[in-house]
Design brief:
Number of domains: 2
Shape: globular
CATH topology of the largest domain: Beta-lactamase
CATH architecture of the largest domain: 3-Layer(aba) Sandwich
Largest sheet: 8 strands, antiparallel
CATH class of the largest domain: Alpha Beta
Radius of gyration: 25 Å
C-alpha cells in the first residue's frame, strides 16, 4: 500500500507540474501574439505563483527598427507602480515607531503648505497615499516644467487651491507621493532614493533596480520609448519622473521585479530578516477609499466588479470572487502594470515600451484566468482591443466635433505682436509668447516644451508642439474689458496673467 501511495503522490505531482508548464507555455504564446496585435515593440513579463517565478521573459525588441531582443534583464520604467514601494518604505518607519499613519504632515514637515489652511493643518500621513487630499491634478508642475526641483514643486503647492472637499472625493495626485518622500527623508535622515534602495531593493536582491532614471545611466541593456504617430511607431526622447521620484521614478527588469512581486504577495521576511511586519503588510492592502466607477479604469466595462477601491498605492476590485490589487504605470512612450491576488499567492508584472498599450490589462486578466482560475477561454486581448479602439474612436469623434464647431473666416482681434509677452502665475509659473517670422510661439518655463501657435478662431490658437507625438491642443487669450489689450492666456485649463510691459 505504501508503494502505491508513494506512486500516487508522484503521479499527482507530475501531472500538476505538467499542467502548470502547459499553462506557462500557453500564456507565453498568447502574450507574444497579443504584443504583435497591439503593435508593442517590446515587453517584459514576470509571473510569480506560490513563491516561485514561473515566467520571466522578454518579448519583441528593445527599439523599433533594431533587431536587439528584449530579455529578462532589459530595463524598463516602472512609473506609478513605484507608489506602492513608497508606501512600503513609509510602513517600515511605522514599524520602527518613528511615525504614525495618523500623524499630521506638518508635524514632520513644518513648512508644508497648500492654499487652504485647514487642509494644511489636518493633512495626515495616510492622506498622502489615498488621492483624497482635496487637491486637483498638479502634474503640470513636473510635466510642463521638468526643470523644477522637488523643493520648487513643493513650494508651488502653497498656491494650490482645493478642487473638491478634503477627504470628500477622489482625484489622482502624484505630488502627494512626492511629499511622502520628503517625510521619509525627514524621519529617516536619508533621501527617499537612498532609503528605498538600501531598505528595500538591496535586501530583496534587486541589483538591477534603480530609484531614478538618472541612476540608470550606466546600464546598457535598456529599452527605448515609442509613440504611434499617424499609424507609424516612432522612437521618442526619454521622459523622466525624477522630479517626483517617490511617485514614479523606479526602473527595473523582469528578473528583478519578480522579487518585489513575491514580497508583495506576503513574503516579507527575506533571508531570515523581517522587512515588514505582517500587520503593516495587511494595512497596505486594506481598502482606504471607494473609487467611483467613472473614475476607475475603463476595463470595468468588461470585468464588471461589484466594488472598486484604493489602498496605499493599489487600485482594488473583485474578480471571480477574489480580491485583486493592481496598479498601472504610464509615462510618455512607456507602460507598466502589476497585478496581485494575494489569497492565491499569484502576481504578474508587465513592462511595455510604447505609449498606453493597454494590452497590459489584457495580459493581466488572461494570467489570472490561466493560473488562478484554471482558464476561461476568454480572449481578453480581443475584448480589450475592441474596448480601447472604441475609446480612441470616441476621442476622434470629439476632435472632429471640435473641428466642426470652429468658426470659419475669423481673425485675431489684435495684431499678432499684441499677444507676445510673458504670462505668469504663482502656481503654474511662466509662459512666454514670442513673435518670430510672423508666427506666434509658446514656450513653457525654461523651454522644455514649446509650440507654434496656429490661428484657430477669434483669439484662440492651436498648439503645434515641437514634438509631433504630443498632438494638438487649444490655447486662448483673454482681453482686458477696460483697455481691450491682451490680459491673460489659458492653457489646458490654467489661466496665467500677462506681465505688464
Amino acid at each position: 500500500m505504501r508503494r502505491i501511495s508513494v506512486f500516487a503522490v508522484f503521479v499527482a505531482v507530475f501531472v500538476s507540474t505538467a499542467v502548470a508548464q502547459n499553462g506557462v507555455e500557453a500564456f507565453d504564446r498568447y502574450a507574444e501574439a497579443a504584443r504583435v496585435e497591439w503593435k508593442v515593440p517590446g515587453m517584459a513579463v514576470t509571473i510569480v505563483h506560490d513563491g516561485k517565478v514561473v515566467l520571466a521573459k522578454g518579448y519583441g525588441v528593445r527599439e523599433a527598427g533594431k533587431n536587439v531582443p528584449v530579455d529578462a534583464d532589459t530595463i524598463f520604467g516602472a512609473m506609478s507602480t513605484t507608489k506602492a514601494m513608497t508606501a512600503v518604505t513609509m510602513a517600515m518607519l511605522v514599524d520602527e515607531g518613528k511615525i504614525s499613519w495618523d500623524d499630521k504632515v506638518v508635524k514632520h514637515l513644518p513648512d508644508f503648505r497648500v492654499a487652504d489652511p485647514y487642509i494644511t493643518a489636518e493633512m495626515r500621513i495616510r492622506d498622502l497615499f489615498t488621492h483624497t487630499g482635496g487637491m486637483g491634478n498638479a502634474d503640470f508642475l513636473w510635466g510642463w516644467t521638468p526643470e523644477l526641483s522637488e523643493s520648487e514643486i513643493l513650494d508651488r503647492m502653497q498656491y494650490a487651491r482645493p478642487a473638491y472637499p478634503f477627504r470628500g472625493g477622489y482625484t489622482y495626485q502624484n505630488i502627494m507621493y512626492l511629499i511622502a518622500g520628503q517625510v521619509i527623508e525627514k524621519v529617516s535622515g536619508m533621501p527617499w532614493e537612498r532609503f528605498v534602495t538600501e531598505r528595500l531593493f538591496i535586501p530583496l536582491g534587486m541589483r538591477n533596480t534603480f530609484a531614478t532614471h538618472g541612476a540608470t545611466s550606466g546600464y546598457q541593456n535598456r529599452s527605448s520609448s515609442h509613440y504611434e504617430v499617424e499609424g507609424k511607431t516612432i522612437v521618442i526622447p526619454e521622459s523622466t519622473a525624477d522630479p517626483i521620484a517617490p511617485a514614479g521614478s523606479v526602473w527595473s527588469t523582469a528578473n528583478d521585479i519578480a522579487k518585489w512581486v513575491d514580497f508583495m504577495l506576503g513574503n516579507t521576511t527575506v533571508n531570515g530578516k523581517q522587512l515588514l511586519k505582517p500587520e503593516s503588510y495587511q494595512m497596505l492592502l486594506r481598502p482606504q477609499i471607494v473609487v467611483p466607477p467613472g473614475q476607475f479604469y475603463p476595463t470595468v466595462a468588461l470585468t464588471k466588479p461589484h466594488w472598486t477601491t484604493y489602498s496605499m498605492g493599489w487600485f482594488q476590485h473583485d474578480y471571480r470572487g477574489e480580491m485583486v490589487n493592481f496598479h498601472t504605470g504610464s509615462l510618455a512612450g512607456r507602460t507598466a502594470i502589476v497585478g496581485l491576488i494575494p489569497d492565491k499567492k499569484f502576481g504578474i508584472y508587465i513592462f511595455g515600451n510604447t505609449d498606453h498599450a493597454e494590452v497590459r490589462h489584457a495580459l493581466m486578466y488572461r494570467a489570472f484566468d490561466t493560473f488562478v482560475f484554471g482558464g476561461s477561454g476568454r480572449d481578453w486581448s480581443k475584448e480589450m482591443k475592441v474596448l480601447y479602439d472604441g475609446i480612441a474612436e470616441q476621442s476622434k469623434r470629439q476632435a472632429d466635433a471640435r473641428l466642426a464647431r470652429r468658426a470659419a473666416n475669423t481673425q485675431p482681434s489684435r495684431p499678432l505682436a499684441s499677444y507676445a509677452g510673458r504670462y505668469t502665475d504663482p502656481l503654474y509659473g511662466d509662459m512666454n509668447v514670442t513673435l518670430v517670422d510672423g508666427k506666434l510661439r509658446l514656450t513653457i518655463g525654461k523651454g522644455a516644451r514649446s509650440a507654434e501657435l496656429e490661428h484657430w478662431h477669434y483669439d484662440t490658437f492651436q498648439t503645434k508642439w515641437q514634438e509631433s507625438w504630443r498632438g494638438r491642443g487649444l490655447v486662448s487669450f483673454q482681453l482686458n474689458p477696460a483697455t481691450g489689450e491682451i490680459d491673460s492666456i489659458t492653457v489646458g485649463g490654467a489661466q496665467l496673467r500677462r506681465v505688464a510691459r
